[in-house]
Design brief:
By secondary structure, this protein is an all-alpha fold. Helix content is 64%, strand content 0%. The chain contains 5 helices and no strands. Keywords: Membrane, Transmembrane, Transmembrane helix.
Length: 168
């Protein structure tokens, strides 16, 4: 094998990082957005009527991002939480892919358990629990699909670095 072939194969391995990170975030966000459209009324849909004197509150997920108003730093805190969630998603996908390509399914269970314990308090409401579950499952699905693709690449074109236990 020539040096240029080895470099191209190495570049092929490197392309899995943005696949896990960037495309994984986009896929997870796309799945969540589709689910939120079903779970949360959008501004086009009338919210339920309120009793006299009550105010109707539209969930932040239902408000287009350009219409978010900062009230006491609330929108800023929500944006930080959203960014933290994306970083957590990337790290969980990296851990899952690493575990799966090495044939260690336990990593998948550990990541899900850790994430659930960390977010346990927020899962009190049905909407939060569903949102959490949808995002987690979409992220795990992407990590498993990427793991299979990486193993197929490794076994067919790559250097055969990883055990093919997941493919058997």
């Amino acid at each position: 094998m020539s040096t240029s072939d080895a470099v191209l194969i190495g570049v092929g391995y490197a392309l899995f990082v943005p696949l896990i990170w960037i495309i994984g975030n986009l896929f997870t966000k796309w799945v969540i957005d589709r689910a939120v459209d079903e779970l949360v009324p959008t501004p086009k849909t009338a919210l339920p009527a309120t009793q006299e004197g009550e105010t109707s509150v539209t969930p932040v997920a239902a408000i287009p991002s350009d219409q978010h108003q900062v009230q006491g730093g609330r929108a800023d805190a929500e944006m930080r939480e959203l960014k933290a969630g994306r970083v957590i998603g990337v790290l969980e996908r990296l851990l899952i892919v690493t575990g799966l390509v090495l044939g260690k399914w336990e990593v998948l269970v550990a990541v899900i358990a850790l994430k659930t314990v960390a977010r346990y308090q927020e899962l009190d409401t049905k909407l939060n629990a569903e949102y959490f579950l949808i995002g987690s499952l979409a992220s795990v699905l992407w990590a498993v699909a990427t793991s299979v693709a990486l193993l197929l690449y490794d076994q067919s074109v790559g250097f055969g670095l990883f055990p093919a236990a997941l493919l058997k």
